[in-house]
Amino acid sequence: MIANLETLICSWPGCHRPAAECQSHHIDAWSRGGETSWENLTPLCPTHNGMNDDDPDNENHGRIVRGNGGYPGHQRRKGDPIRYSGNDLLTSGWRGLTYDYYATRHSPPQP
User: Can you give the residue ranges of the HNH nuclease domain (predicted)?
Assistant: First the structure.
């Protein structure tokens, strides 16, 4: 559930399906040892969850990976640029709000 609060929509570029209608997708596939943790989960609609290549060496449709700022995006093949959803909701979830808070209004806490 917490993963759905990160991006608020399906993480596949061009899809605008609300996260509430999505499945929790393991970025590093559970079947390949990926953890069930918020860092490894992102919402994908049933169609895009089924299209995602869980095996990074099998490059039929590409896969969801984490890129800039930790945001999930689609990478067609290893080394290709990561494409992100153009929907503003991608950055309206908790990750975007936290980034905006520290980047524009406050300095991050010092260790």
Answer: 2-50
